[in-house]
Tyr recombinase domain-containing protein (Pseudomonas fluorescens), 316 residues
Amino acid sequence: MTFEILSGLYLADRGQDQKASTLKETKICHGTISAALGGLDMRTHSRADLVALRDRFSDGRIPSTVNKLIVKLSAVLAWSVENGHIPKSFDKKLKLTKGLESTRKAFTQDQVVKLVSYCNTLPETSWKRWLLSLGAITGGRLNEISQLTTSDVLTLEAGIVAIHINEAGEGKSIKNKRSERLVPLTDCAYGFDLAAFLRYVEACKLSKSEALAQIGYKTAGDWANRQAIPAALGDSYGPGLVFHSLRHSLASLMQIKGIPTVHAQAVMGHASGTVTYDTYGSGVPAEVIAEMLSGLFSNQTASRPPNAEVLLLNNV
């Protein structure tokens, strides 16, 4: 019972549950694992076999890639044990723990203020202004923000304005089912102008444009990472500071402020890996998250700059 055979059985049972892009990646990873394990009978495999496999994977690959392969391996082995194909798996605590530091850094709060201040110098009719601003106050991933439509901007019963991150619609995609969420927009956070953003949304509707973005996902990322962020930060810019750093910054701020994990997950679209917290979205009202974010940004709020002048805050 080789891994290749187990992979075929696993995909026949679980493959339909995966998105096409995820399934393609899974098959590639399974091919790599199968080639490395060869004819090893997984019914009699040992811990030493899997440690040796991990060591082979580590040759020429970065730790995060090695761990991705191990995650795919573990999924097949766990399924195989559950379905009686192998008696036991020895993959526990197999993933690497060293060398996993992300090359992406978090912005300081001063730097986030500079970024939103830079955005406020752009016309409110420009999507580029809202791309970075929304990233700063929601922690949304680049693709999540880039694929927003006019119908994804909601005004809830309590008067709260939120963005609905989802994959309903042609070409839209989210990382996993836990990524779908409502994230309230906090007016004045870092100088964010909610009224101006809503005017932009209405302008898109009037122009019969369902998409909020005026440029593609990759073009948006290139502009943000290569032009806007370096220009906004000036001398404080450094390697590893990219659009995704806004996500790290918000997560770090929530951690520092002691925000309950379940609330942080509702904003970020994360899961804790525990049964209780993996159902975070169903029990956290948008009003609670809106109030939490308002308090979180209380020291980072400011009046919007008149005539789109640059917002300067000395105490963040």
Notes: The two ends are 60 Å apart (CA to CA). Confidence is low (pLDDT under 50) at residues 272-282, 304-316. Residues 3-83 form a domain with the DNA polymerase; domain 1 fold (CATH 1.10.150). The first strand starts at residue 153 and ends at 155.
